[in-house]
Amino acid sequence: MVNAPLHIITLVKWVPDAQLERRYNAEGRIDRSEGVLSELDEYPLEAALQLREAAQDREVRVTALTMGPAGSSTAVKKALQIGADDAYQLTDEALIGADIWASSVALKAAVEAVAGAGEFESGEPEYLVLTGMASEEGESGAIPAQLAERLGAHVVTYATSLELEPERLVVTRSGGTESQKVAVRMPAVVSVTDQANDPRYPNFKAIMAAKKKPLTRFSLADIGLRAEEVSAKVRVLTTTARPPRTAGEIITDEGDAGLKIVEFLAKERLL
């Protein structure tokens, strides 16, 4: 539909603070007692805000959606401060330890619930889901494609720029050794890379305004899912910390440094 309202749902994640030492609990899972909004999720959020700002005669709403423990509200609150219009938090004990499969099942139901919530002044909206290129701790990058498949939506990955046209979204994406420009109709799921933009930072006025924006919390039952429907297919058996790096060998040049380097490389089977 030409100039139909657009509901942009941006997935954001609460991840362990990279500035702190990563810890694991007894089940081998990452300790998430302290977390922050994933930096990789600031890029799709910025892309959503830029699309909203560029839309002249089109009603666009930007919603932040997160899935995680109670503390994950920090992620969507930060998204509200940055500029999202409203936010939703899916939290449920049954989601602890969710793998990619379980996460995509839960997020599919959550996106559908959020997409159907609220009213738009100019009619029935189309929806667009934006995600980061990967999560900072898992780095699988598989959620966008799995989510799109479950939603029956189009998918574009590794977007470096997005341009909203009346009946489609034009996306420039990184194809490894080349850049591709593609067009996609809604509904769509698009993952955005860290090369797409420079995320903005909230000022004091935005931080205060965010306190008045709606934040809705819901559980699996609220979106029609049972705990057994989101049981993880992958179980962590063991978790072992990476061994510390040892100091490198220092070669003092006494006229034979070149020979010593060759001997070292040969010993390490690098020649």
From TrEMBL:
SMART domains: ETF. Residues 27-227 form the Electron transfer flavoprotein alpha/beta-subunit N-terminal domain. Pfam families: ETF. GO terms for cellular component: cytosol. It comes from the Bacteria. Belongs to the ETF beta-subunit/FixA family. The electron transfer flavoprotein serves as a specific electron acceptor for other dehydrogenases. It transfers the electrons to the main respiratory chain via ETF-ubiquinone oxidoreductase (ETF dehydrogenase). This is Electron transfer flavoprotein subunit beta. It comes from Nesterenkonia sandarakina.
